[in-house]
Design goal:
- By secondary structure, the chain is an alpha+beta fold.
- The protein contains nine helices and eight strands.
- The protein has helices at residues 4-8, 31-40, 54-58, 62-71, 86-95, 101-115, 131-135, 173-187, 195-201, and strands at 19-23, 44-48, 75-80, 121-125, 137-142, 145-150, 162-166, 189-190.
- It has an eight-stranded mixed β-sheet with strand order 1-7-6-5-2-3-4-8, with helices on both faces.
- A hairpin with a 2-residue loop joins strand 5 and strand 6.
- Residues 198-202 have low confidence and may be disordered.
């Protein structure tokens, strides 16, 4: 009452409460944060990064974790970019890395093929008209938490900034980013599993 401006500048109020943490680089976020969010998710996980490749290198036995989640009743969705799309090709020219964008996407799809068939696991690639929006913004949803990475112009994902959000009400930052990812998912193309690789995975 006496110092409202001083208090509000130090205590998160309203929709500001949804911002749990910000990181100047995605790689600055401890792997334990990712692992805990994945582990704590019980109902719905949507991983809408353009490649999602880093999950298999960052979280031990990530395939086993996904399998356990799905079998426990959690809906698990992966939205990836089209490895053959024009947006992917242009992004590879921008990044200029040996481990190309299309290679990272295909590596993720290969790992996912090994998990199928698994009821509750869903995989799509973003529609061509959405590819530019997808490659520029990665949204990872874990029930009521989200990790959001807006990709800077010529920077690889792990060097882009990231925000950790937690839902506290309708129409907040969490809902806006979740809505964006949901729209991309709805227009995405369901992935056709590689039957030969799936058989080997079983």
């Amino acid at each position: 009452m006496i110092w409202p401006e001083a208090v509000s500048s130090r205590v998160k109020v309203g929709q500001d409460r949804e911002l749990v943490h910000s990181y100047p680089y995605r790689s600055a976020c401890p792997s334990t944060v990712w692992a805990k969010l994945v582990d704590d998710t019980t109902s719905d996980m949507l991983l809408a990064g353009y490649t999602n490749y880093f999950f298999w290198t960052m979280i031990p036995d990530f395939a086993g974790v996904v399998r356990k989640k799905v079998r426990g009743g959690c809906r698990v969705r992966f939205l990836l970019g089209d490895p053959n799309g024009e947006t992917t090709r242009r992004r590879e020219e921008i990044e200029g890395t040996a481990l190309t964008v299309s290679t990272r996407i295909r590596m993720s799809l290969e790992q996912l093929d090994r998990l199928a068939p698994l009821d509750g696991l869903e995989i799509r690639t973003s529609a061509p008209e959405d590819a530019a929006n997808h490659v520029g913004l990665s949204v990872f949803l874990f029930d009521s938490d989200a990790l959001v990475t807006p990709h800077l112009a010529r920077v690889i994902g792990h060097d882009s900034p990231m925000f950790h959000l937690r839902r506290h009400g309708e129409e907040g930052m969490y809902d806006r980013f979740a809505g964006h990812a949901g729209e991309l998912w709805e227009r995405g193309t369901p992935h056709t599993f590689d039957q030969a690789r799936t058989a080997v995975g079983r």
